Amino acid sequence: MEMGAVFLTQTAAGVLGNSCLLCFYSYTLLTGQKVRPTDPILNHLVLANNLVVLSMGIHHTMAGFGGKHFLDDTGCKIVAYFFRVARGVSLNTTCLLSGFQVIKLCTRNSWWKISTRFPKCFGFCAYLFWILQLLVNVLVPVRVIGPRHKQNVSLPMRYRFCSTGQPQSFAPLLTVVLLFSTDVICLVFMIWASGSMVLVLHRHKERVQHIHSCIPSRRPDHEARATRTILTLVSMFVSFYGLSAICNLFVGFSRKPDLWLVDSSVFLGTGFCVLSPFVLISRDSRVTQVFHSCTQKTFSQFG
């Protein structure tokens, strides 16, 4: 019951935050009002995060409240497949977001002019990420096994009632290595981009401190806030991913892992998808203005 309440709270908060941001970014992209170059990337990011929360949160909530065998073999394969695809897109879009910001900081005006004139190219890259993850994870359902009466107890229960078999041929093993290598490459790139952004901001702060004139800074405050937001997202993603990977290693090497370890792995794996929309909401002045105007209209109607 406790884990059911935890997963219910986490799922409700994640779906609410990501759905609100998805509606907001979709509205800005469709109407073209106050569109920023990062909006297409963030639109795909919140969509992927929403799918991650839904694919893992719902059936873990039902399992926590006592539901059993509500997922058959086909359901387990579909849930695992969409979880892997959405999680991969979330990783790729976060990597693209950090890369965009570090290039913007390092190249100053040249790349910024290109990004403002061609914002659709970032949305096109995000579509390519979806296609890539759909193809790369095509063999994931093959390894996932649903609940069966004569199921081998040695198979690790990585999804509570769904098991993952060990790769027995070259193709599934190659898929696992490919998935792991792409994740590592994206994580290393995000760490490098974060370090570069911190270094650029530190150097810029030192230059500004030595300026004793009335000339305004070349880098406005909103650019520094955007950089800090991306740094926060990247640090959150790397932290949750690392902790979830550690739990997954224990689950994978255990013949019969404890349920609390499986639940902890899922809870940490979806932590970034739940918290990231609230970070974006708190740092985006456009969202806060919309929320403020809506609350004012609501109070005026009831007043």
Any overview of this molecule?
The structure is a single chain. By secondary structure, the chain is an all-alpha fold. The protein has a two-stranded antiparallel ribbon with strand order 1-2. The model is unreliable at 149-157 and 212-219 (pLDDT under 50). The chain is globular and about 60 Å long. Helices cover 78% and strands 1% of the residues. The chain has helices at residues 2-31, 39-64, 73-107, 109-117, 120-136, 140-143, 170-209, 221-253, 259-269, 271-283, 285-302; strands at 144-145, 163-164.
Here the CATH topology equals Rhopdopsin 7-helix transmembrane proteins
Element order: H for helix, E for strand = HHHHHHEEHHHHH
Q: Domain count, please report it.
A: 1
Helix content: over 70%
Q: In DSSP terms, counting alpha (H) and pi (I) runs of 4 or more, how many helices?
A: 11
Mean pLDDT: 77
